[in-house]
Write a structure and sequence with these properties.
This protein is of the alpha/beta class. The protein contains six helices and nine strands. Helix 1 crosses helix 5.
């Protein structure tokens, strides 16, 4: 089964709770899907996570952040934030994720939301020396949940900021968020799936990372 066929067979299109303008291929049960795919990494691509919902909402409500600009969405997962950027008028969006199933899911979701022409889904490994290229805006949501990944992400995002990109980050209070490097812009209360989180609502903070 191809990655795209697996994504389609394991999910159903559903409106995102905090961003109902966008529909995603969403799995009914995370652990059953994880078992069935026999992957080391959880299926982050199959659910709208709190940080992604918050950042997507922010981008749609503040379209000037991305309108007419080249955008890179880091650790894109389902492609939720990338889709929001495309809908808000970004000139071009690269949605990057290390998981080939996420890359497939991004393609499925971009097509379902009518923005496939704007979004390019690519495998992106932060440990492999990627850089933000010509991106004017770099977006990252819910990326600071594990120590090593948080360090890689901060190094990548900081380099992008030093290169002149506007870097926006969303985080729902994960353990390794580097608050000293971030400036808070706003917060929002985001509904989440209790099976994924410790509750039904998470407070998500939208930050700007300064050079």
């Amino acid at each position: 089964m191809t990655p795209e066929a697996l994504v389609r067979s394991a999910t159903a299109q559903s409106a995102v709770p905090f961003v109902p303008e966008i529909r995603l291929a969403t799995a009914a049960e995370p652990y059953e899907l994880w078992d069935s795919t026999a992957r080391e990494a959880p299926p982050f691509w199959a659910f709208p996570w709190a940080g992604g919902q918050g950042l997507a909402r922010y981008v749609l409500d503040h379209p000037g952040v991305v309108r007419g600009r080249r955008v890179l969405d880091v650790a894109s997962g389902s492609g939720l934030v990338a889709i929001a950027a495309a809908k808000a008028g970004a000139a071009r969006v690269i949605a990057g994720d290390i998981d080939e199933l996420a890359v497939a899911a991004i393609g499925v979701n971009a097509a379902a939301n009518g923005v496939a022409a704007v979004i390019a889904a690519r495998q992106l490994d932060l440990a492999a020396g990627w850089d933000a290229g010509a991106a004017d805006v770099v977006l990252a949501a819910d990326i600071f949940y594990q120590r090593e990944l948080a360090a890689l992400a901060l190094a990548f995002l900081s380099a992008a900021a030093r290169s002149g990109a506007d870097v926006l980050v969303a985080d729902p209070g994960r353990a390794f968020v580097p608050r000293a490097a971030l400036t808070s812009l706003t917060t929002c209360e985001v509904p989440v799936l209790p099976v994924l989180e410790d509750g039904q609502v998470k407070t998500v903070t939208i930050y700007r990372l300064e050079p």
